[in-house]
Each structure stands twice: as structure tokens, then as C-alpha cells.
Amino acid sequence: MATQYKNLINGEMVTTGEWLDVVNPATEEVIGQVPACTGDDLDRAVAAAREAFKSWKKTSHEERQAVCMAISAAIKDNADELFRLLTSEQGKPHEQAQGEIFGAAGMAKAQSTLKLEDVINEDSEQRNSRTRRVPVGVVGGIVPWNFPVMMAIQKIVPALMSGCTIVLKPSPFTPLTTLRIAELIADKVPAGTVNIITGEDSLGPLITGHPDIDKITFTGSTATGKKIMEGAAGDLKRITLELGGNDASIVLPDADPKKVAEQLFWSSFANAGQVCVAAKRVYIHEDIYDELSEAIVEYAKNVKVGDGSQQGTAIGPIQNKKQYDRVLELIEDAKDNGYKFLLGGDADPSGTGYYVPVTIMDNPPEDARIVAEEQFGPVMPLLKFSTEDEVIQRANDSEYGLAGAVWTSDTDKGVEIAEQLETGTVWINEYMHLSPFAPFGGHKQSGFGAEYGLDGLKEFTYPQVITVKKDSVLA
Ligand code: NAD
């Protein structure tokens, strides 16, 4: 029988009756079962979080930091077990799973240093006015399947550091490593401050609409983000939404094809392309298009797609069947329209495991589905451009605005272009670097608000202004 994992509610590891199966995307075998929570289970978790909030909101920065450091240490000390479990449920190769586990431990440690200081608005003979930040209360955290551990930690830690308590729901596709972490931290976090419950997608709207949850922090698709915004409107819950992207990479004619080919490849194919900030449209100047596309394809030919637990695998399967079918549909659409493939495009849906070969497209039209939609798979459309104005217009011609990159040997030029891109993050000559101290958030339909840094922490708080009249007759 598959291992059964429990939920964390009010400091206890509990089961709830019904179970959900969790599948390894490399083998399609059931590798674990998790509780299928109902509204009653959610009520219990929210009640525990509400009760815990009464005392947690009064804790000092140092007390909060100690708990978050304990979470960080629990992850780091058990990294070996955790990264193997993560590979088995998410599909990513061991090395990348290790990166996520150590990254989450590091993120918890770094974010536990964040502190929102009071701000003095006025200190005159007449009055003293200051703004303090007060925690919003009970947070509902909803997490996707591409970086399940990192996303869980980047919601739990700032919630705790701001003085909030949290009820977190992992994706039903990837709840195992998060629940194992729940078990590891159950006696390290005060009861009720962190609750982790699992269920189908249908548990999500119950969280969004719950009358005793004060804020939703969500990472996932834009479509679900819109539903969350609607669901949260009933009682004007605070919301932070980290959503989809269709990020453009722009390669200027002065970039050296030999130097950038490998980095460009991984900017699209890391985590099998299932990264919100992956380069999903790669614009290459016409002067270097042929040389660079050839260099990328040559590099790609030696990259092994396979089971992430096997040595030598660099790209794992797509995480779940639904997403696998979607990526295959986009590839089929490209074939039906006669677009040219430089590599890949020939998946075998009858085989075991949700594998898609590395697929590189040669200059498909801008309105091809494989360009205009977020692929979220190992697919890289290479697109040719002639002028800067043209490429900036094409890059910005999207409902999304998450991130982008410019590749050039002239960094001033790179910055000039970056400042014209309508995205929350732009990298010059690198990709996917996120700092725990810098705000990360999407423009346009890629998000609402921000995570990370003090901007991210503020989203878990309300400002409260306290004004003392100094020369009052009552003083
Ligand atoms: P998803 O929106 O399908 O699911 C995300 C989470 O929401 C899951 O836990 C799911 O159970 C829950 N959910 C589903 N329906 C819900 C509803 N109606 N109300 C409340 N919760 C609901 O997304 P996904 O397929 O798991 O993740 C892929 C998407 O996430 C991609 O679009 C990707 O770009 C995006 N993403 C964004 C970021 C970012 O930081 N901007 C990071 C990672 C992934």
C-alpha cells in the first residue's frame, strides 16, 4: 500500500477520512496518499489558526525569527530524504530537487531577517505620528505543483514573520514533500500557527470564501487567480496573486552565440519548462539568428530527458497528465499549421511517464498558439527580429507581464531596453535569479501585489497610524 501522509492541524498530524492518490509522473505509479479535506476539516484548521493568532500576533521579531530558523534547519537537516521525495512526486531531476530543497531552507533563513520598522510621519512640538504595521490575521495559502516546497515556504515564512498564522493548501498533484516537512516542523512551530491541509482543487474556493480567513496568498495560473479575486471580493479579503507568464528573452546582435546558447537553453528548459519565469519566447536578432539557433540545437541534442531519479537525467517528465496533454496539444497545433521544428516535437503518449522531448521551433508566427500562450513545458520558440522598437513592441504584446531578459555585451543598452519592458522583473545576461530581499510580482495579468522583500512582507499587514497630540489640554 502507498505511504499515507497526514495533515498538520493545530500542532497535530491528523487524517480526515477520505484519501487522494499521488502519482509519480515518471512511472505513473501511485506513490502516496494524502487526506482529502472537507469544509469541516478546513473549519478546524482555520479555528486553530484564529486561536493561535491571538498570541502569535504579540510575539517579538526575535521569537518569530527563531521559529522560522527552526523551519529552515528542519528542511536542511533532512534535505537528503526530502529531495528524493520531491523528485518522485514532482518529476524534476535530483540535482534540481536538491536545489529547491536547499533553496527553500535558504529562503526561510533569509526572509526570517525581514522586519517592518515603524515609520515616523511627524515628530513636531504639536504631535508625534507614526505608522506601524499590524498583521492582517489568518492567511490562506494556495500553492501550485511546479515548485511545491519553495512556494509553500515563501508563503509560510513571511506570514509568520509578519505575525499572521496560516492555513496552507499544497497542489493535489504535489503535496507529499510539504506534508513530510509539516511532520518535521510540527513540534517546532506553536500549535495552530502553521496548518497544512490537502484536498482536491475544490478545497481552494472554500479557502477563498472562508469568512474567518483574512488574506489569500496564491501562486498558480492566471485563470485560477481571477476566480480567487472574485471569491475574495465577498468580504474584501486582502490578496496577493503570483500568476502565469509568457516571458520574452531578447538577444541583441552583439551577444556571442557561443557564450549565450547554453544559458538561453536552460532559461527555457529548467524544470522541463514548468517555471513561471521561464523564457517562453526567445527573440533573436536576424544577424545572429542562424548561428545562435544552431548552437542551441547542438547543445540541446546532448541533454537527456528521463526519470529524474536516474543519473544523467537533466530534464524530467511533465508533472501531471493534464499539463502533459496541454503541451502535446500545443505541439500538435504547431504541426497542423506546418510550423518548422528544429528539434523534438515527437512525443509518444502511449509510453509510460509524461515525457515530452526537448522541442525547439524555428520562427513560428507571433500568433501561433505555441508562441502566444504560456506553454509551461519543454518547448522553445525561436523568433527572428530586425529592430529594437519592433522587438520591444512584440515582447510587450501580451496580457502577461511577469519577467523578461535581455542578452547583450552592452549592458547600458540592455538596461535601456529593460526599462521599456512591461514586466515586474527583467534580467540582463542572466535568468531566474530571485532575491529574497527584492519584490517579485507580475505586471498586467501576471499578478497582483508582490512576494519577497519588505514589499512582500507588507502584504501580510495593515498600516496603522497612531498620532499623539503633544500639547493637548488633556496631556
Ligand atoms: P492552478 O491555478 O491550476 O492551481 C494552483 C493551486 O490552486 C492548486 O493548489 C489548486 O488546487 C488550486 N486551485 C485550483 N482551482 C482553484 C480555485 N477555483 N480556487 C482556489 N484554488 C484553486 O495552477 P497550476 O497548474 O498548479 O500551476 C501552474 C501555473 O502557475 C502556471 O500558469 C504558472 O505560470 C503559474 N505559476 C506562477 C508563479 C509565479 O510566481 N508567478 C510561480 C509558479 C507557477
UniProtKB/TrEMBL annotation:
Aldehyde dehydrogenase domain span: 19-465
Segments traversing the membrane: none
- Oxidoreductase in keyword set: yes
SUPFAM superfamilies, per the entry: ALDH-like
- CDD domains from the UniProt entry: ALDH_AldA-AAD23400
What molecular function terms (GO) are annotated for this protein? Answer: oxidoreductase activity, acting on the aldehyde or oxo group of donors, NAD or NADP as acceptor
Q: Which residues form the active site?
A: 242
Q: Which InterPro entries match?
A: Ald_DH/histidinol_DH, Ald_DH_C, Ald_DH_CS_CYS, Ald_DH_CS_GLU, Ald_DH_N, Aldehyde_DH_dom, LUC3-like
Keyword tRNA processing found: no
- Keywords, comma-separated and alphabetical: Oxidoreductase
Instruction: Give the record's family classification.
Output: Belongs to the aldehyde dehydrogenase family.
- This protein is called what? Aldehyde dehydrogenase family protein
UniProt organism field: Altererythrobacter lutimaris
